[in-house]
Structures are given as structure tokens and as C-alpha cells.
Amino acid sequence: MLFDLDRQIFYVFGAMFWPQDFVFLAAILVLSALGLFLWTALAGRLWCGYACPQTVYTQIMIWIERFTLGDHKQRQRLAAAPTSLHKALRLGLTHGVMIGFSLLTGFTLVAYFTPAPQLLTELLHNDLGPWQEFWLLFYAGFTYLLAGFLREKVCTHMCPYARFQGAMFDRNTLIISYDAKRGEPRGPQHKQADGQSKAGHCIDCGICVQVCPTGIDIRQGLQYTCIGCAACIDACDNVMDKIGAPRGLIRYTSEATLEQQLPEPGFGQRLRQPRVLFYLLLVGSVLALSLMSLLNRPTFKADIMRDRASLVRETNDGWLENSYSIRLTNATEAPQRLTLDVEGLPGIRLADGPRVVTLPPTQTITLGVRAQVEPQHADKGAHDIHFVVRSLTHDGVIRREQSSFIGE
Q1: Tell me, what's the pLDDT at 45?
Q2: In this structure, are 362 and 330 located in the same domain?
Q3: Domain range for residue 211?
Q4: Which of these, 83, 109, 255, 359, could form a disulfide with 171 (CB 3.0-4.6 Å)?
Q5: Which of 164, 180, 206 marks a domain boundary?
Q6: Is residue 162 within 8 Å of residue 156, measured between CB atoms?
């Protein structure tokens, strides 16, 4: 993808778009919003736990720490150790790699607007423009700050999605839940005389709270700060394995399944939920309309602007004349030949007759033309006319652009 702001051309997966095509950007934004609603209704906050850029960048920073500083216990020992050259070097290496990764993300952002090979050459020769430098450092700095330091605090205090997600949940939405009927009462697994324990399967070890990146206790029910990362599920399953209890005390499930003790519905059953079907219908409709519009995009564009400085004038042969500016844009990467004419009033013509124009690839040209008509066919006031642009390169491609002719 390349957003060439200088030439006002946007390349998306081989397709070329112009500023006039921003309706497709609106369609993408609508599809993204509906897709997020669909995903949430179907599977809760899986977006937050697995696909959100903040989560992904945070996980990358954690991988860097694990690679340079060791596992969690090793990092704790290093943090508690007194200041030393060894400690400073390891921390410096860690943050140096983080900063390098952040700069790489800033480079990828700017590469959406400046071709990556060109941008790399300018970077190596220290020839970046001021805006390129600003956005590279701006994006890199916030990546380093948000993913390297703030991390899940962004999810709990800054992200609006956590605040309104509850409005998109229902009793059938897939969420991380604690099975209280199976887990309570909490306590150690002491065997009774009959070989059975009166305690639930939850031994109250607190590991699910320790591994939670936002510090919540999932046993207290769903909370808006839960990002759906499933760290508590993995930790609890390990504990269940050790005590010989079945997995799934904490699991992805729904409120309806837990309350009614029903078997977990399959993916097909979840798709048949009314809310999910409604979102699927909306997504499909917007996608179908967008694809139809995309497939029927014109190969050229024409914009007509009448000269308002001079409404109407009379030519030497007694005809009435209006002036117009016509802006023609080639929406393809091959040259095109076009013919330009006018219709709408009896005997209306262009001053120099029908025009033949050659449009270079991806270029825009502006032409000045004059439309003329005999006075008896254009009395005082505005009259609707149409400029007709035909492609000689693509048979059957015609655009009729409406304008007005001022008579007297």
C-alpha cells in the first residue's frame, strides 16, 4: 500500500484510488466497525487479547525482555540486585533493542506514504524531510512508551473499547469465566473418610490473579479490565493437572452455558445467534455494495466548473456563449484518448467543435472550453446541459456530466 499525497494517488493492493474515491475509505471504516461488533458478539474480547496492535507490540516487548533478561524470576532477581555495570549493560541492551524495534515500526508507518526503498535510501543518507523525521520519531516514541512501559495500563485507562464492550455482550457471548458451581467452596483438597473432598476444585492458590496482566481476579466475575488474553486459563489448567482435576475451571464459555450447565455450543451454533446473524447481514450487505461499486469504477473522471466571472456573452456571429473549465483525470496507469462534446439545448456546440484529448497515465489536466447556442434556444435564466466525455480507448465508456447554460 502506498498513499502518495503529493500526486494525490492511493495504491491499495494493486488498485489505484483518487481523492474522489474516499467513499471506499468510508466503506472500509464501516466494515471495520461492523466487523469489530460481529467479532465481539461472537467471541467477546478476543480482539483485545490476540489482535490489537497494543497487545501485539506489548507481547513483542515482553519477548525482548525474556530474551535479554531471562524469565520472570530472573528479571525479579536482576531488579532487586544492586546497581552494577553488568546490570546496566543488560538493561541498556534491553531498552536498546526495544528502541530499535520502535524505530522500525515508525519506519513502516512512514513507508505507507514514501516508498520503502526510497525512504531507506534517504534514511541512510540522512536526507529525510522534516515531516518524515517527525512521524518516524513520533510513532516510534509512542510505541516505546505505550508498549514498553504503560502496556496493559493503556487497555484499562486509555482504550474506549473496554468501556462500551458491555453493550455488545449478551448471555451467549464467548467470554473468559470462572465456573463457580464447580470451584466453590475454595480451599485445599483434603480427602474425607469416604475418599471425597467437600471443597471445590479451586484450591485458592491465587495464580490466576498473579498471571493476569491487568491484576483482576476472574473469580469475581467478568470485569471491564479483562482483555481476554487467557493467561488465567493456562495457569489454572496447569494447577488442575497437578491436583488431578479436569481442566476448564476457568475457560472460554458463556453465561448461559454456565448457568444452565449446558454443553459448549459449536461454532455453527454461535453463528446462528440473532445478534450475530444481524451483524453478518450488515457486513455482507456493505461488502457486496462496496465490491459492486469498486468493479464499476470509471476509468476516467470528469469535473465541470462553469466560469462565474462571465455569465454569458455574445459572439461575433450572434450566438450566446458560456465558458467552462473541465478537469479530466485518468484513473488508470495507461494513456487514454477521450472525445468531448456538449448536448442539452437545440443546436448547442463547442466553440472549436468536439475535442479529442489524450490523457497521460494517472494524470489530471484542466481544459478551458466554450459552449455556444443560438439566442432563440436559450432565453433568460439557467438551462440544464450535459458535457459528454467518451473514451476512444475503452469502447462504451461514456460519462455525462451535468452543468448549466445561462441565457439572456
Answers
A1: 85
A2: yes
A3: 170-278
A4: 255
A5: 164
A6: yes
Q: Which residue has the cell 474522489?
A: 20
Amino acid making up residue 267 = F
Q: Are residues 348 and 252 in the same domain?
A: no
Let me know: does 231 contact 217? Beta carbons within 8 Å.
Answer: no
Could you give the CA distance from residue 390 to residue 400 in angstroms, rounded to a whole number? 9
The answer on pLDDT for 191 being more than 90 is no
Residue 262 phi, psi dihedral angles, 5° rounding:
-95, 160
* Distance from the Cα of residue 162 to its chain's centroid: 18
Amino acid at 360: P
Phi, psi dihedrals of residue 150, rounded to the nearest 5°: -70, -45
Considering the domain architecture, whether residues 117 and 227 belong to the same structural domain is answered as no
Q: Grid cell 485458592 — which residue?
A: 204
Cα–Cα distance between 271 and 174 in angstroms, integer?
Answer: 12
Tens of pLDDT, residues 206-226? 999 999 999 999 999 888 888
- Locate all alpha helices (DSSP H) within 177-227, ordered by sequence: 180-183, 207-211
C-alpha–C-alpha distance, residues 118 and 10, integer Å: 17
